[in-house]
Specification:
8 helices; 239 residues; four-stranded mixed sheet
């Protein structure tokens, strides 16, 4: 369930880092697949999460912690006060453990677009993560399809930055990635967001609509901003 | 399950028309609610459907028959050959039994728009039904959201006809009614169509997306072209 | 995701109003599509929502805020105490920011009907919104189909007001719009409500039943009182 | 999966009748629970079904066969031609193997009501089964809720027969049992039918609506006309 | 949504009792359909519920209040302290407003059976309601199918009471009503309960299993103890 | 997707057998995991399936072919006529390619039980497969829970064979494995079968009920007779 | 719903232990089916649960209590303080009431494997339960399929312990049991865990994936660690 | 619904090509978004599809036709016999209309991997399409996760080709893309295939598992081989 990474020369050192009996970090992941260690908070006990973070810090690894719960966030802040090199990003939706991430990317631009204001906090997660990886982002938020002129103007501005990939965040009817993909030349990845009520709410309609898109887009799961950002980043991974 | 109608001066004659023990037609429906008799074919036995049509013809009622199955279509054609005043419309997706429908409408225009070519046969059902009711239609087909310029040009052309209501047919991601509703001043009714494969296919994603629309549209069920046309027509019913 | 509107003579002034980097209001929406700015509260952070409201107020726009969460409601009340022209409607389920809404309607009556007492708070949202738009409403609440005489009497009373459209709110089995549509001449829009427990509860059975209605009704999503009211209002929009 | 029955004095003879290695009929079921042997056709191989019917005939049991497939129907007709005492009922939707059913009922009336014409073939299954059991039925078909006067007149006629239980068949929005239960004094059992297309079609909306009914009805599964008739019959079983 | 009843000689007095603009009680329901007024708490605002109870008390009606929320329960207790004739039943899962219920039943026994201990609180709701209606109950709780001897012994004890109908409560795999129906002569109504976790939990598997039962049982919705009890009671209603 | 196996001394010979570019058989599977090669027919083109079978035969492997479609069955019969050592089992629901399967089991008994006659063809698949593997089976078919005495007698007979594991096949409400697991000492694996109509039909209710069982059973997917038999067989695999 | 057990010589003493009117414990279960009494906490009232525990203690039975809620946990701790022989296991996710469990097992090893750290608390429930039954466990946690080398090393270590059955815990995509079953010779039971967000989250995707496994595994319900452990234990039950 | 493209110098000629009233091809799509015209067959009438193909041919456009139905395939073959430059690809699952596609790509390699033999026909669609676009493919088929060594060997072979993106096709449990993404450095797109029976069959489990993947993959809809190939190709589009 956890992601793991570390800069290492191939083959050197033990390939895993055992933490208690409950975690086994994959030290070679960054070098092997070009994606840093991202520890998913949600679902782990606070004790397990803090144990993992301490273990990584002790071993000198850098990492990111995604989707922390309220209790985990408090525990991570306590660890930071105790001197662990932890920073809160994107209003506490992401944490960064300082240290090498074991990945290297060529320069490039990722465009982030949201349909509404409600999708912005998720886009900020992607923005923060891509920033930590040294990639540049170009953003246009609240440019949904009910007012096309907003979108068309935003597209002109973004295209000037020459992004190599677009992440399009949308909840409710999830039409943005489809409309966007009819306007731009770079691949578009749809990120459905858990916005909306009633039938198809919580991102279900958006996900289904993106899967049914008449444009050739790919998608990630509902609210999966971090996986989307990693998928985008992998494009820039140096071999 | 069946709809029934007949022109009658209010209160005159028996309010229902019994056909065998299996059908009871509501003779006052047209005058009461402004919607003609439409008999749904699908789901009925061929014997029941032809019995109803014969009964209506004998009583001098006009009616429409929607969604006939292949077997029902053949049976209706045989009835026509035997002299019943039955006409096939929209490539046999609708049949018209000649005779008074018991409804009266003021003049008006309904705009019909489809996202793709696959939605056209359903739109033709609505087109034919509205034509039988004496209403005018303005159409723009295959103007989906992956190529916005097509849609924007179509909207300009349709708006010149000053439609009072739009029916927007779309399958797959079902984005057309939402985008359209951001461009026009008349109410938009979304008609999801059973187009698309995989998850959310057969109109499920389109329906969910239309229910989640960030524009104030109303919807009908998947492939419900005839109910949508009747809902639109009711707006023009004379009191 | 947000709706936006503003009175403007066509083409005058910048077409959007940017608020921070997270919101871009569509200033021409009211004039273009005949629907006022309604900002959906639920799903936005409190900071984003109050930022949008302040931005609209500063720019002299009027608007409505729908489905505020408890925390948003408290924040809106604080803004009102600080002098922003904000009023709570329908027991705080809707807020009105004073100022021009950019829309104009001809006079007309919308009928609102509920199946039960539990549906009344939602109907009150529609009632309040239509009132702010200057439209008249005729209401009959708790007239569900388990006691037909209640409904039949209510219909006689409402028809005397000559409504041009009906909004019928029902949870549980959602039969009201179907029965109502067999009794009245104006179009009926079903609004399923999240009432009921067990299978099909939270409005799911009501929505499905309305989509399957043997009468030609249109529907909106579960609890979508505000979109239903806007759809009804659009009928009266002056061109 | 099969139902089984046979007249026997309590405790006498072997309690089961083995047929090949694939069927074991419960000879005491009729006497024990007041319900006759009904063999469900659908799902069995033709060889198994005909084996069971031959075995029952050889042992002198009577039985009913429900939901035969097209191939099973042909096989049963061949058995009848070979002299087995088999009769087709309800247009071949039910077969009767002559012989004692092992059940005894006091006299009584069951009312059968359908919303539409499409529901009639299912109601005929119940009608035929109840007839074989010696119970009386009162019927009113195609009296759905879109034309209330039809239903109200039908109820008056049926109530004059003093039925002790109602079976109400409805597809699509499934509102009939709810409305009916607000009008009559006997218990109402809803039988959803697989009528309708799009979302909630094939009886799904009808079933959900009946489960959500605001009237105290009970329900059976979609198209379960025979189980509904047996449930009704059990009320009249002599102890 | 609400149920309503009152003892009245047929035709006497106004047929409905309006309470504010939000409730309209059906005064003739008890006499018409043989079921008392049961007001569903859940889903109503506290103000609406207490308004209805006060209105009924003022008009001299008796009633039951089902599924009160925690806040409603507190409000009902306050009303009782203020002198309204309200009693809490079944650990506060049901309340009784004293006064005539407008229904009359012949004597009879209803058997209540639960599969587990977790189903007992729901069975107690039915027990209390049937007691208020003057019917007798015979109970056997925690006699699920994983230990058949428990069930077989319980059945012998219950059958000695000669119940005319069984209500069988079961969550999880919901097998109890099916097994029970193979053992007893009276009709069995399954009441799925929201017991169980994981897939099919919250009563979904139990409901589906009961609908699929190979025995001829009828079912009500998940946790619908009160509708089940009313359905059972109706059997004993005097005409 | 395919399973693959072959007798080999560990490490000897190439670990995979490539057939065209479309199949790569895992030659060490039998020795490694104690399960023979079973090629799933359904889903493959006829050309691919016959190619795989020819390839296996040419390489001297034995195998089983499960769930062949009608067209595949015909093609396999043609291969047999051409001299390939192929035998049809269980009425053509399974085929055996003669040759070593690469597995070895200690002696033991598997008990197979079905709720109804409709489940027997699936149980026969398991019976045939276990027979090919040299394991013994004890069977009791059509002993469902609506007649407990049948089941109790069958259990006594089966227990005398001292089975080490039970496979319990049931469709519809799927109660058999739960009731059985309360009676026997060996582990019970539930095999839901696609028997039943309406909601929860096609095995969905049976699967959910087995997952919710209040007895500690394990389950396989709907109609997964072959995987269930392999799971049972693995218990007897020699190390 | 509850499980029940007790050591007894066959046939001796009353077969059930009644506690109030709400629980009836099956005293012979352990001896009959080889599984101890495990009382499911969740779903029971606190009063019922403590009543059952007191009743068992008074009768001298041992038992386990699974899935206690927070309130039940507090109540059980109070009972322990009052002197009942209750111990908390697995961080309070399981409680042990001291006393004979009525079961006896031959020695053996069960392997427990988890895909991630989030699955560990569930695996600990199984670990604790198997320990109470006197069985040995071999564990490897956080060895999911995104880093195969971790899994391959863990398998070598576990196989050295010669486990007779594997329980593989995995949430999210649930691939672990499938991959594991391709590597080991003992049967694998998949335990999907409620880990993951968005579509397929809360264990739904993991369960579906395990049911669809191309390896012959069996599964239990989401989070059903205790049923999985009992299923595994039954393999070692002495007859 | 249809995709459309054509080589054109920017701004030259009319932007759409109208065919009858039912199709409007987007002539600038290829140049604008780097994706050729692909006409989806399935869902269109034969007359509409052949009309579109003739129209494109007449206008000198090249195109691809995907997912033709059996009837459409026959019609396309007749058109080819009449001289239209149409070629069948991938066993008739794709057709190529000769002529310029309006797109240009830099050289590059796409890796195609399937879990089983059943997934191969879909992978062949992608193979054929990428070939028509001038891109190179590296393939490894039937390398699913139940035999890891097959996959690990395949990965080594593919990596030597230095693919920039992987398309991983898998049905049933859909684990392949997740395991693959833990082994390779290029981004992985999962393509769930409609392989498998029972719950989660027809690709539903595979899709859910891919969305839940603990590796950062993106996905397309079930069987969406062509959209996946277009998404991959877009990466190589020249600006």
């Amino acid at each position: 369930m956890t992601g793991h990474s570390r800069r290492r020369t191939r083959g050197r050192s033990a390939p895993e880092l055992a933490i208690g009996t409950y975690a086994r970090l994959d030290r070679g992941r960054g070098a092997r697949i070009g994606v840093p260690e991202v520890v998913l908070g949600e679902g782990k006990t606070v004790a397990h999460l803090t144990g993992i973070v301490r273990g990584l810090a002790r071993a000198g690894h850098g990492a990111l912690i995604s989707r922390p719960t309220e209790a985990q966030r408090a525990a991570l802040r306590r660890l930071a006060q105790q001197g662990l090199p932890l920073r809160s990003l994107a209003d506490g939706r992401l944490f960064r453990l300082e240290g090498p991430l074991g990945v290297a990317y060529r320069p490039g631009v990722v465009a982030l677009v949201t349909a509404g204001t409600s999708d912005v906090p998720l886009a900020r997660e992607a923005e923060a993560l891509l920033g930590e990886l040294g990639l540049r982002v170009a953003t246009a938020y609240d440019v949904g399809v009910a007012g096309l002129h907003r979108l068309q103007r935003a597209v002109r501005r973004l295209e000037a930055r020459r992004p190599e990939i677009y992440l399009a965040f949308a909840g409710r009817e999830g039409a943005l990635p489809t409309v966007l993909a009819g306007l731009v030349r770079a691949p578009v990845v749809g990120v459905p967001t858990a916005v909306g009520y009633g039938r198809g709410g919580r991102g279900e309609a958006a996900l289904a609509a993106m899967l049914q898109s008449c444009a050739p887009i790919a998608v990630v799961n509902i609210d999966a901003a971090v996986p989307a950002a990693l998928f985008a980043a992998q494009r820039f991974a140096r071999r």
